[in-house]
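Lesson 9: reading folded outputs for more than one chain in a single document. The general rule is that every protein is listed as its sequence immediately followed by its structure tokens, and records are never interleaved. Here is the first one.
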Amino acid sequence: MSTLVNKATSVLFVEHIVPSLALWENKLGFKRVAEVPEGDELGFVLLVRDGVEIMLQSRASLAADLPAVAAQHRDSASFVFIEVPDLDAILARLGDSEVVNPVRDTFYGSREITIREPGGHFVTFAHFTPPPG
């Protein structure tokens, strides 16, 4: 059977990329592996850590590249769900991030927290405990 999908990466559209880098690079340790300018600012950034990718693109860059998409996406926030091996390590790095939903244990077996990143998007970090036995 052939592969149907090789990879999926979230693209978060933001007004300005630099404020979001405070979370993704400074707090969570993602590395910038590609960037594209848009005028005097960053228009696009690809961030990677441990095989996980997040793309940030400015709304100005989106409007220049795909105006029809930009017109329909204007104020939409995305929701990114990230499974992590150690939630306490993430909590130690989040600092003064805006917590939308504090740490909780879910009915589906995860311990998680949801924040709003500086670009306005919701990010849940979840740790799943293996079932006993």
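And here is the second record, again sequence then tokens.
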Amino acid sequence: MSAMPPAQPASNPFISSPTYLMACQQLRQVARETELDEGVAERLMLPKRSQIVSIPVRMEDGRTEVFVGYRVQHSLTSGASKGGLRYAKNVDLGEVAALAMWMSWKCGIMNLPFGGAKGGIAVDPAELRGGEKERLTRRFTDEIQNIIGPRVDVMAPDMGTDEQTMAWIYDTYSMKVGYACPEIVTGKPVELGGCVGRKEATGRGVVYCITEALNELRINPETATAVVQGFGNVGSVTSEELVKIGAKVIAIGDRYGAIRNDRGINVAKLLAYQSTNERKTVVGFPEAEAIPDAELFTTPCTVLVPAAMERVITGENANKLKCRVLAEGANGPTDPAADAILARSDIFLIPDVLCNAGGVTVSYFEWVQDLAQFMWDEEEVNSQLKKQMLRAFTRVREEAKKRKVTNRTAALSIGVQKVAREKAKRGLYP
């Protein structure tokens, strides 16, 4: 009989989060499919370590505001834990725990010597003024100093953070330990030991996977159309890279609204427009028409790329999708109810733990370069990224075909089993 993790106790501090429950549901399914050892499965259900901190910050108007920050390390079995830091108004402990769990599977799929981690601060970065973001970042770094380190836990940018945020973390940590320690974060400026191509890595990885899917489906990229939800780092780079392979991006949305042009959106002009308006939005772009947000996912296209938030494709809208390929640039964009619907459709799903793994892969390259103090050029970075992404894509497809399961189940199985094997080999201390 297949083992599966037990139901979560009411005392579980993460259980109020629907995103965490979604991650647990996925793990239970993999446990059933792979007959995962019950003891290992139970250990994988809960993070290794979690820390909640209060972050008092002196605001520009002179008052003090206290923010709540989180850092969750899901697994340290495979090596240092690795994962982004997001600034988002509604981020909570359960969401961060789910993202850390997914990062463990992602590192397993890519065969990286990392466990999964994630961090978050409950703040809308768009509302921060002057030096508030820097003060917030530095104080957060100081508060979690006891659980981070280049061989313990390495942060990277995520939603609401960027290479400047990582530079502040690098500097704060280095001041505390007394020497320059660039390997404490990845995704930092190239001048400080960052890796060329890291900022574009997630979007490039998404398009490497899309290209492979189109090849398998025998669809010429130059005849393909694409819709992208989210126009931050991942969505914008994905859009640029889609144009490079000949695809036509016909609709794009962000937190403020959505636009469409069936003749194709000029992505370069849209990026220039976005950079000049106050809200940094795609809304109001003169070479496209505004459409309701709900229409973005139902726009007929070859490739749909959700590249923003979790749980945007649900049981309510999954049967309305009109794409041939669903490429999950975001983490957890499809909930389990939608998964069940998609499994019965002809949509080719590229699951998040594979599709957006380019970011952590090049983060690994950056970490290795910082440890060795020997930097690669961009050609080498992109070549290695493509090789790793295509290798992982092939492994997932072979697993899916061999076991006659969905791409998501195949990808998660590969990631979970790698961590499970390592836990079993290392044993249980004491």
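What the second record shows: DSSP finds 14 helices and twelve strands in the chain.
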